[in-house]
Amino acid sequence: QVQLVESGGGLVQAGESLRLSCVASGSIFSFDKMAWYRQPPGKERELVCWKRNWGSPYYDYSVKDRFTIIRDNAKNTIYLQMDNLKPEDTAVYYCNGQTGSLNTWGQGTQVTVSS
Question: What is the mean pLDDT of residues 2-16?
């Protein structure tokens, strides 16, 4: 089974940028969707964005025009470029691979944005 490992989280100030990476132990091509989710403190996990092998990505309205998901099947890696970060972006960010009803999750990486 493919494992996903996130990295790149940290503490930044509002307005700054971060780039998260999610490296898979095997091919991600078989995943219909590669996605980023996040779980803010005290809240449920929520979808941030996803990218299929083809077509345009999907972004939640809260991150549209600030976040960019990049899917590199050749490197078995997806990235999340986060610009103009806001305090409300503070959360644990999770990488997800989905095929049908099967979901594979990473362990998460903490992103904290100070005001």
Answer: 97
